Amino acid sequence: MTRVERAAPRRGGKRSGPPEPEFVQLLTPEGERVSHPDYSVDFTDDELRGLYRDLVTVRKLDAEATALQRQGELGIWASLLGQEAAQVGSGRALRTQDMAFPTYREHGVLYCRNIDPIMPLGLFRGVDQGGWDPVANRFNTYTIVIGAQTLHATGYAMGVAKDGKVGDDDETSEAVIAYFGDGATSQGDVNESFIFSSVYNAPIVFFCQNNQYAISEPLERQTRIPLYQRAAGFGFPGIRVDGNDVLATYAVTRAALDNARHGQGPTLIEAYTYRMGAHTTSDDPTRYRVASEVEAWQAKDPIVRMRKLLEKQGIADEEFFKAVDEQARVEAVKLRERVLSMPDPDPVTMFDNVYPHGSPLVDKQRAEFETYHASFEGSH
Q1: Of the residues 6, 221, 288, 355, which is catalytic?
Q2: pLDDT interval class at 379 (50, 70, 90)
Q3: Are the C-beta atoms of 133 and 114 separated by less than 8 Å?
């Protein structure tokens, strides 16, 4: 068997309703654990409760950001509603030394990297450019240009390989993960990244969150084959995972990252999930999809299935669930208060930090800008 064939996903357990596509699954929508011949997890009860807490908190913070935008406090917001398991599962699979390259929707991964959740809201409020340190947090800044971050990630991964930081099991070996959506797979940037990463055997995992729509274009208008199968044409393995299953997402991502870190090259993961809300707050999904489709995916909710697992196995009780909800609510309230207290930046500060050592041209532009603004002082 070839490496690609070994990575091919298999069906994981019985399901009710319409048949699902082939993917790796460890937790059914009914909260039942199922086995898989190639992937497994061995979490403690505390770790399972922690994953549930992550899912609930990330969703609550995301909902608060959406509300803030609707109230005019943010310019725009890209919600992750429905994709929490794909992000938390993959985010928790990262090791401390690994580097992540997000799009503009990876708020759950950002949370897993222990970055203050206020950071992306400053960006979407328009008061800063996203204030976290990409190197210190091992999490690059948000990328708005569709697919561009895959090139950045590939170049970074090639550098990791050239620096000899692959091949060991300790913290000296690194892996890179690049996040993107199903629509981005139609971009030249993504396909070029596949080529370079394959040829240079770069230690990278391409993590595609297939949420079924590239804004308004459904998946069947984007590809003739399942997205994970595209990897074979570039010479590396692809695998599809149930993106609403946090356990399977963790297991598949951890295995792919380990392979990359050990010098086995790239992997494409297709996390099969669904965007429950709008593409962004400027989008109206009711114009291109029907309510019955959304309802069908609500039955596969990643948080509901994780709660069912905890209940069935006696790992958590009602008191625990209420405490998690309350903690998430408090964090969301604090987030709102911090957003509303953000000071508006002085417009002239946009000239700061353009060049590390200054620039005569920028200095001239700054002076002209200051003169222009001063001409309005005292006017009505």
Answers
A1: 288
A2: low
A3: no
Tokens of 293: 């489709």
pLDDT of residue 131: 79
Confidence band, pLDDT 50/70/90 cuts, at residue 196: very high
Locate 95 and state its tokens: 């090791």
Q: Is 279 a catalytic residue?
A: yes
pLDDT in tens, 86-115: 999 999 999 999 999 999 999 999 999 999
Distance between CA atoms of residues 190 and 184, nearest Å: 7
CB contact set of 181 (below 8 Å; sequence gap of 6+): 103, 105, 146, 208, 209, 210, 211, 214
Q: Given 92, 105, 240, 279, which residue is catalytic?
A: 279
Tokens of 225: 């084959």
For residue 228, indicate whether it is catalytic.
Answer: no
Count of alpha carbons within 13 angstroms of residue 147, beta-carbon side: 14
Backbone angles phi, psi at 253, to 5 degrees: -65, -40
Comparing CA positions, the residue from 265, 263, 239, 264 lying closest to residue 252 is 239
Nearest to 75 by CA among 126, 130, 131, 142: 126
Helix (H) or strand (E) segment spanning residue 240:
strand 238-242
Q: Nearest 5°: phi and psi at 305?
A: -65, -35
152 is catalytic: no
Render pLDDT for 232-251 as a digit per residue (tens, 0 to 9): 999 999 999 999 999 999 99
367, pLDDT greater than 70: yes
Which residues, 6+ apart, have CB-to-CB distance to 328 below 8 Å? 56, 57, 59, 60, 61
